[in-house]
Design brief:
CATH class of the largest domain: Alpha Beta
Largest sheet: 9 strands, mixed
CATH topology of the largest domain: Creatine Kinase, Chain A, domain 2
Helix content: 40-55%
Number of helices: 25
Number of domains: 3
Distance between the termini: 25 Å
Number of strands: 17
CATH superfamily of the largest domain: Glutamine synthetase/guanido kinase, catalytic domain
Mean pLDDT: 92
Bound molecules: adenosine-5'-diphosphate, magnesium ion
Strand content: 5-15%
Shape: globular
Radius of gyration: 29 Å
Structural class: alpha+beta
Low-confidence stretches: none
CATH architecture of the largest domain: 2-Layer Sandwich
Length: 728
């Protein structure tokens, strides 16, 4: 009988690209399934339209009576588009999105039925959510969770379901999802940044944090994945010998996109257009079968929702095309992993990008203010930022010899480095007219509007300034962007508040002019945040040493990194800003450490199963063939057989050795798992899984991969790297 691997390969040979129908113009379908401004104008009364817009723009509350009007309009719109169900759509702490569909359809007695969707159903729901992770919050408080409408992210129709973006909170008010703290952080940065932006332009009344993510992923044929239990269950390969050809030739990056993949991308993009996700670029990535997709940036809350939605859509569309999308950060050993760069900036309601240099010295002073405050914020809270991107799967990138390293640092390029070096020399106190003129002409005035984007020269930086935005590159491809975006916006908000206080105090108490005061504070900040700036190679051991000298953290594993989430400093920060309280933070910490242990546990089990049930039996079968061969030679040649059977006998022995090592490794790993499982404390359990269980993975894998090289290809049951990476 053919192995599952050969059946799967057979299937892939016969794949025909799925035909994709492109609409005539993408712009004609953009946002068609979104209850956006245009749809609201058509389906809502003037009053209810205004109240939604007011909620979006100013965060005002929508009155309950008004919600009834809005829900009616929304329902009519949804039904006109063929929707039959509605759901509150939210992002629980599992990292995925959650939904529970209810039909609009209701009976009203006498066999009569109507389509019903009231304000109550729009505004609030109580999903039976007891099995979402909550870190003990709901048990402690004996409170139930409910979802509440977030009008700042528009409702949309997916399939035949009206999806209403919501937050998920307990009745005692604790956040049970990713969105709630994000919204709080975004509100905080709006206030803090607006106050500072007013130094430069009184007309600024709102600042939006913007986010443009870049999603990397692998596309693997569905049949091949079905024959790889490790990929199917954990999203990555736990064993598999490197392919003779990998990414050495760099011939995949930006190369022509294979037809089957292109059809998938086109289909996906059409879906995205309907959903109002403004996807713009697509290309091959560095590794074979690795790709990237990026949208036009948006306001952060919407961008986060769109990324979560996109990942779900990608999965579904891939299925139609007989692909499986791998979002895992490191599906294949020895080839590039995937990340999700988070491009971040701040935009005013007057249309100014606060991290974009301008055409006048004053505009550039504004730019420098936000730029330097961001550096200072990251310098102060690098550990918390590192914690926000920690996960079992992202550990395979950060600190594991793959860009970026686990050390957070900021790359700003040589032009801005020179500017900061000059600014650092500013006099302490009031500036003379000559000095001011010099500064304006020779330093601030010299920043070109368009900065050289020299970041391609430094792909190893986890946080790089790229001309008019910062790019947080350390986010994992699988991650929900809300987590790092909550932290980044919170720490910058806190920093801007401190800045404002200092500048105001210099103006008031030292009678300084506004720009004198700003220069003075910025000078101090430049000095204070020097240690976070690093322009060199983030890979090397040299940087690790240097970073240690500078006192920067270097947490290579998730259990280590996560601790910063509940440090005194972090709790004080989030409590002060009203983003999360101690209970919420500790709950999240527990969930994340628990999740870490579970992920390693699952991987350990899968690896043990595959090694014992697939690899070893196959190796024995091949060994038997060799034994038969040796026996046959002996029968024919008698004592002279040894000269002819030497190689075979050596192979027989090698196979036995590898089998013994694998068995031994698995037995010991299981012992360590048993011990780890008895550890009560979640933090210690995660640590045991990290330091005691996980190290066996490499050992077991090493011997399995050796066997893969020895054993007859025809009987090897698992699709090999060359097949997974080069079939398309
Ligand atoms: P490239 O690096 O390919 O030249 P860009 O620099 O325009 O492209 O953008 C890369 C990513 O950064 C895109 O996802 C884009 O949406 C995002 N981006 C661009 N400007 C901003 C901004 N001001 N705020 C947030 N994201 C941005
Ligand atoms: Mg990028």
């Amino acid at each position: 009988m053919a192995t599952l691997r050969f059946q799967a390969l057979q299937e892939t040979f016969h794949r025909v690209p799925v035909t994709v129908h492109e609409p005539e113009r993408r712009s004609s379908i953009f946002g068609k399934n979104v209850f956006n401004e245009a749809a609201m104008r058509q389906y809502l009364t003037k009053d209810s339209y205004n109240s939604v817009m007011d909620a979006i723009e100013n965060g005002s509350k929508i009155a309950r009576g008004m919600a009834d009007h809005i829900s009616t309009g929304m329902k009519e719109w949804a039904i006109s588009k063929g929707a039959t169900h509605y759901t509150h759509w939210f992002q629980p702490l599992t990292g995925a999105t959650a939904e529970k569909h209810d039909a609009f359809f209701e009976t009203v007695g006498n066999g009569q039925t109507i389509e019903k969707f009231g304000g109550g159903q729009l505004v609030q729901q109580e999903p039976d959510a007891s099995s979402f992770p909550n870190g003990g919050i709901r048990n402690t408080f004996e409170a139930r969770g409910y979802t509440a409408w977030d009008p700042t992210s528009p409702a949309f129709i997916y399939g035949t379901t009206l999806c209403i973006p919501t937050v998920f909170v307990s009745y005692t008010g604790e956040a049970l999802d990713y969105k709630t703290p994000l919204l709080r952080a975004l509100q905080t940065i709006d206030q803090a940044a607006t106050a500072v932006a007013k130094y430069f332009d009184k007309n600024v009344s709102k600042v939006n944090a913007t986010l443009g993510w870049e999603q990397e992923y692998f596309l693997i044929d569905k049949a091949l994945v079905a024959a790889r239990p490790d990929i199917a269950l954990s999203g990555r390969t736990l064993l598999g010998h490197a392919s003779a050809k990998g990414q050495q030739l760099d011939d995949h990056y930006f190369g022509s996109i294979p037809t089957r993949v292109l059809n998938y991308m086109r289909d996906l993009e059409t879906e995205c257009m309907y959903l109002g996700i403004p996807v713009k670029t697509r290309h091959n990535e560095v590794a074979p079968n690795q790709f990237e997709l990026a949208p036009i940036f948006e306001e952060t809350n919407l961008a986060v929702d769109h990324n979560s939605l996109l990942m779900d859509v990608m999965d579904k569309v891939a299925d139609r095309h007989n692909f499986k999308v791998l979002f895992h950060e490191k599906p294949f050993k020895g080839v590039n992993g995937s990340g999700k760069h988070n491009n971040w900036s701040l935009a005013t309601n007057t249309g100014v990008n606060l991290l974009g240099p301008g055409s006048t010295p004053m505009k550039n002073l504004q730019f420098l203010t936000f730029f330097i405050n961001t550096l200072k914020a990251v310098n102060e809270h690098e550990e918390l930022l590192r914690a926000s991107i920690a996960s079992a799967s992202n550990d395979h990138r950060l600190g594991a010899n793959e860009a970026p390293p686990a050390i957070i640092s900021a790359f700003i390029g040589s032009q801005l480095t020179e500017v900061l070096d000059e600014l650092e020399k500013v006099t302490n106190g009031k500036l003379s007219p000559q000095e001011k003129t010099d500064l304006k002409l020779n330093v601030v005035g010299k920043i070109p509007e368009i900065l050289l984007d020299n970041t391609d020269r430094n792909r190893t930086s986890p946080f790089a300034f790229t001309g008019n935005k910062f790019e947080l590159r350390a986010v994992g491809s699988k991650a929900n962007c809300a987590n790092p975006m909550t932290v980044l916006n919170a720490i910058v908000a806190k920093q801007l508040m401190e800045f404002k206080e200092k500048v105001d105090s210099l103006i008031k108490n030292k009678k300084m002019k506004k720009d004198d005061a700003i220069f003075n504070v910025l000078r101090e900040y430049i000095k204070d945040s020097k240690r976070i700036r690093f322009e060199g190679d983030g890979y090397g051991e040299a940087w690790e040493k240097e970073a240690k000298k500078r006192g920067l953290s270097n947490h290579k594993t998730t259990p280590e990194a996560l601790k910063a989430k509940i440090s005194k400093k972090s709790i004080a920060l989030f409590e002060e800003l009203g983003i999360m309280n101690k209970v919420e933070m500790e709950a999240r910490y527990e969930i994340e450490t628990e999740e870490y242990a579970l992920r390693i546990q699952i991987e350990g089990r899968i690896l043990g199963d595959i090694a014992r049930n697939h690899v070893i039996p196959t190796a024995i079968r091949y060994q038997n063939i060799l034994i038969e061969n040796v026996q046959g030679l002996k029968d024919i040649y008698g004592t002279g057989f040894k000269k002819l059977a030497g190689e075979q006998m050596e192979l027989i022995e090698q196979i036995s050795e590898h089998i013994a090592k694998i068995n031994n490794g698995i037995t010991q790993m299981i012992e360590e798992r048993k011990k780890a499982n008895t550890v009560e404390d979640a933090e210690k359990r995660a640590s045991a899984y990290c330091t005691k269980v996980k190290p066996y993975f490499d050992e077991i894998r090493y011997h399995c991969d050796k066997l893969e090289l020895l054993v007859d290809d025809e009987i090897w049951p698992l699709p090999k790297y060359r097949e997974l990476l080069f079939t398309r």
